[in-house]
Specification:
5-stranded mixed beta sheet; Nucleotidyltransferase, domain 5; alpha/beta
């Protein structure tokens, strides 16, 4: 368990209709770099990803997790605290729950493989009010919907 992680990632996903149009978002903060004049961590990456026209909310959540993990690895981050407001995704990715949905199995396995590339990684459930930035990014992704 991390005492004070340097990098923290928050992820989220949304589906309007469940299934319906879906978006994903992730944000990575560097806890060692404070914003000027503020005691907040510095945002170093903000991701918005259109997921598809008919996706479930859980699939969109996993898409946000996958995008954030990929980005952290591209930045060379080796230790990461991952926070999300989907209790299901956090419990599944940390091995507490089995993945029963065939729809989620492939993206779950992708996220597990990405997770193995970190020297240290921890997954924590946070409440929605602590995940506002990632939530906004996932909803912003709906604006990226390709025209029909």
């Amino acid at each position: 368990m991390f005492t004070k992680p340097r990098y923290t990632m928050y992820f989220d996903g949304c589906s309007k209709g469940n299934p319906g149009p879906g978006g994903a978002g992730a944000v990575i903060y560097d806890q060692n770099q404070e914003k000027e004049k503020e005691k907040e961590q510095k945002e170093i990456v903000a991701l918005t990803e259109w997921v598809g026209v008919k996706v479930t909310n859980n699939y969109a959540e996993y898409s946000g997790l996958r995008a954030g993990l990929r980005s952290a690895l591209e930045l060379g981050i080796k230790e990461l605290l991952v926070c999300g407001d989907s209790l299901l995704v956090i419990k599944q990715i940390s091995g507490q729950y089995k993945v029963k949905s065939p729809n989620l199995l492939q993206i779950y396995e992708e996220c597990k493989e990405l997770s193995k590339q970190f020297e240290q990684i921890e997954f924590r459930h946070v409440y929605r009010d602590s995940n506002k930035r990632a939530d906004k990014l996932s909803n912003d992704a709906l604006d990226l919907c390709p025209p029909p």
